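User: Please predict structures.

Assistant: First:
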Amino acid sequence: MRNNNENVPETDARERRILTLTCFGHFMSHFNMLVFPAVLLPLAGRMNTDMAEVLGISFWMYLLFGLTALPWGMAADRWGAVPLLLIFYMGAGLSGLASAFWIDSPAGLSICLAGIGFFSGIYHPAGLGWISKEIRRVSLGMAYNGMFGNLGLAAAPLLAGIVNWLWGPQAVYLALGCLNFAGVGLILFSPKDSVQERKKTMSREKDVSVRAFFILLACMMLGGIVYRGATVILPAYFELRNQGIFEWLSGLSTGNLSPNVVATSVTSLIYLLGMAGQYAGGWAGERFELRRCYLIFHCMTVPVAFLMSLASDIPLVMLSMIYFFFLLGMQPVENTLVARFTPKKFHSAAYGTKFVLTFGVGSLAVKMMEGVKVNWGIGAAFPMLGLVSLMLVCGITVLIFNTRNLRSDDV
């Protein structure tokens, strides 16, 4: 056990302003990615095609969200986070408006969604690199940032479900574009000193293990497959498996309640609980050995993933709460490990490398979920993800074994 925050000052006003900018960016990056799963079934109905085919439209969005992370990270290390964040908001905002325009064209919508993924890929290497370089209590900063990412996860299905219910999928993407443009205003009207990166250097860089970083990358790649697969399938999974909840709520409602809005609302509740998981991960990362926290959080997801295939309605919701508490809660620990295993001046590039694997390779989970749905049915989705998590746990064990001689302060 260790305590990393002894004698470390609380965040100052400047750090709080940095966290304000990065937290909104994290909110929007995940909001942009999670709108599509929320309107997956409505789009299938609008296009009069199968859910699996519509799911495939999003592949390039998720692929570019990850694959562009490394070049964006290298650019952030060179020019700073703020110019990159401005490009993020402008590009994603324009792509969102274009998606609304091409909503009835599968090919056109796929291209516009790819634009959303391309520009949204800026945030993680730029924003997390900024936090790791500028915020003194890194685990706590990552926890707060992660909580707003989870808020984006929660808000996307809820807001998209409500807007779709009232005005349809086209209005959903109009709203997405406008929210991204709000980020431009937030940066432009922020106090000047909040967008100037601190020009200080460490007295020395900690020794880092190249082998450990590559093992960590392999673990994060598997984690990216689990994360993307779980988040892209969850709203549709709830819509198909929570019929009892929908019928009960329909009996209480006097209006024409939509199965999609019920499923997306439950999904939002799950992601809101994930905010508590993010805080718990940051709290644990400051007080206990990071590698073992990482192992424990992922271990907790494995049995729950298999149980989710057997459950529906309230039991399924309860299991999902546990699953996403730990799946999302490990992220501050993981992001702090990236900072510990890489030199400070390359932090944005290191996070870029991470997200190429977690979101780029992780986008293959979209195809994996499509194949699972076609060949075995949607009920097999979470057991398949559980098998990937089991491989991930083995990888973390290898990481711990290979870094057993490093000092606790370094990890």
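Second:
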Amino acid sequence: MRSLAGLANEIRRGNSHRGAVPLGIHLEGPFLSHLKRGVHTDSLLEAPSISLFDRFWEAAEGKIRLMTIAPELSGATELIAHATKLGVRCSLGHSDARVCEAEAGYTAGARSATHTFNAMRAIDHREPGLAAYVLDKRPLFAEIICDGIHVDPMMVRLYFKAKNEDRIILVTDGISATGMPDGVYMLGDMEVVVRDGRCTSDGVLAGSVLTLDNGVQNLMKFTGASLKTAVAAASRNPSILMGIEDGWGTLEVGHPANITVLSPSAGVIETFLSGHSALTVDSVSA
């Protein structure tokens, strides 16, 4: 509750420090499957509960925009419907759901999938499971961590072929070690080892050190996607999912001038925040 209140306060401050603007909170837990929890602490997972969610909502001052939830859990569809009515986008993930359970989550209001392939029931030819459902369900948005570690490039290509281009979303799942050298870092109270781009805690993947520009570059490299398509997956598409496309994710007169200027190979040339260049001395000299 303290964390949610603190995040809500940070969002309220906006870009007073001329930095990136947090647009909302993603609850990646605690309504997750014990079988597909990743590095989430098992004892901290909770059964879906409208009353508990409402406490989160109050602490966050209504600034929860996205919630990952395992649809197969008892009470999940009711919570998805409740959160959806409040404007929260519910995302299927950290889940061992079968197709019928995934469909129940979608019917209740879920509109995206968290970290496609990761912490999901794997594809099987007789019980396709959540991962296959995500690929097959055309209207469903689908995130992917495109670092070549969380998902093999071949599976990224399969994902790209299966999903409509306006439904793919690039995310980083980046932790605080992003941009830092190899070493040992903390993720909450967990010790995470970062080596050669891989973040692990007790041998289990624990987030990434991927940056979004590298995610765009990797999608182009792995799939042959155009720069336009890859950039949309990192900007316009998530804006549409979140229902904020009127102000974010497009270059339009009257929109906030938060712009990343890329080269044809998706290298970052310059960044503008609210119309002001965010170039540093180091980046200018580089």
